[in-house]
Amino acid sequence: MSGDDHGHGAVELAEPIADPGIEPHEHRITDIDPKAADRVERQVATMFTLAGLLALGACVAYFAIPRDAVLQFGPLSGNANNMTIGLCLGLALFLIGAGAIQWAKKLMVDTEIVEYRHAAGGTPEQRADIIEGFQTGAAESGFGRRKLIRRSLIGAMALLGLPAIVLLRDLGPAPGRKLYNTIWAQGIRVVNDVTLRPIKPSDLVVGQLVNGAPANLAPLQEESPVEYQNAKAKAAVIVVRIAPNEIRTPAGRENWGIDGILCYSKICTHVGCPISLYEQTTHHVLCPCHQSTFDLADGAKVIFGPAARPLPQLPLAVDAEGYLVAQSGFTEPVGPSFWERG
Ligand code: FES
């Protein structure tokens, strides 16, 4: 096919290279043997069909595999539900890609063309020609003619959308009262969330902030990884020591701190990111997600950003052995503010 065949009209064309040194064109087996073409067609259709079945498998796995089931691969382990869904969807996408490549390489039209370079920007004739070329290409790809491939591809693509819809279920239901219940309770020790050592007031100097966790969290890891992750996400706290004369204590919380040591939920009340950036001189802690800023010396009130309420405070006490413990659980729900709280 020459450049003129594409209707370049009045556009000035560069001369083609007389002999670019291309090997003589060899026809593929599927171009000369209809049986081979049919065989490849069946291969492609099989891949597309398997992709559709794998998409269905992902949906079945979502409902059938318990959320806390674990798959073990030697020293590595992972959540069986997530891994099976991921594996099914990954394989489905791979098979659609592999089928499309096989289709293009073995069945779609295989002619060599000469294209002339020309100025950018097409004339109306060129545009009409491109549309015609597209339609010809669509006809030559066999999309209309090869029903088996077309139907299996459409089926697979339609089924691939299904897992996306099924997975939307994970967005709900609203947590209701669940956010009121963390595993903090009266007498639970506050431990350093890295070393897991219980914290004594003397471990903290004025200005210091550490990430904390309840002492009853670590044993959950053995029992149920899913429960452990849920509990950890809700119970994470920060423990900070501020000079007592710089603290403005909200009414009713006079005995919630120990010598300037205060404990707050680490979960941002905007949409739940873990807050982390502490500015010692101002007692401000910043959420990295959308810059909500809380004043830990003033009941963790919001002083900047989209969060709508202060960080919940955990009332502290000291047990008989001198370690920091919770006086009770949180007195309000931790986490994002957009749930209905009654
Ligand atoms: S989640 Fe913290 S500011 Fe948005």
UniProtKB/TrEMBL annotation:
InterPro entries membership: QcrA_N (IPR045603), Rieske_2Fe-2S (IPR017941), Rieske_2Fe-2S_sf (IPR036922), Rieske_Fe-S_prot (IPR014349)
Key words, A-Z: 2Fe-2S, Cell membrane, Disulfide bond, Electron transport, Iron, Iron-sulfur, Membrane, Metal-binding, Oxidoreductase, Respiratory chain, Transmembrane, Transmembrane helix, Transport
Rieske domain segment(s): 256-325
Gene3D superfamilies associated with the record: Rieske [2Fe-2S] iron-sulphur domain
Topology in the lipid bilayer: Multi-pass membrane protein
Subcellular location: Cell membrane
Function: Iron-sulfur subunit of the cytochrome bc1 complex, an essential component of the respiratory electron transport chain required for ATP synthesis. The bc1 complex catalyzes the oxidation of menaquinol and the reduction of cytochrome c in the respiratory chain. The bc1 complex operates through a Q-cycle mechanism that couples electron transfer to generation of the proton gradient that drives ATP synthesis.
Predominant localisation class: membrane
Transmembrane segments: 44-64, 84-104, 153-172
Keyword Iron: yes
Organism the protein comes from: Kribbella lupini
SUPFAM superfamilies: ISP domain
Family statement drawn from the similarity comment of this UniProt entry: Belongs to the Rieske iron-sulfur protein family.
Protein's recorded name: Cytochrome bc1 complex Rieske iron-sulfur subunit
